[in-house]
Amino acid sequence: GFFNFTSRRPRHLLDILELGYNVMYNDVDMVWLKDPFPFFKGNHDVYFTDDMAM
Fold this sequence. Notes:
Protein name: Nucleotide-diphospho-sugar transferase domain-containing protein
Domain Nucleotide-diphospho-sugar transferase: 2-52
GO cellular component, one term: Golgi apparatus
Structural class: mainly alpha
GO molecular function: UDP-xylosyltransferase activity
């Protein structure tokens, strides 16, 4: 389930980085002190995960 996904996340991120992609990873308990979006230029893909908890 969700634990299996989260425990494999570092490996998935490393695989993506090794392919030459840039990754900005944020967890739900992280706080930005400034708006990061002015640093991004061009088009970007955004992906979200959800454990379906209610």
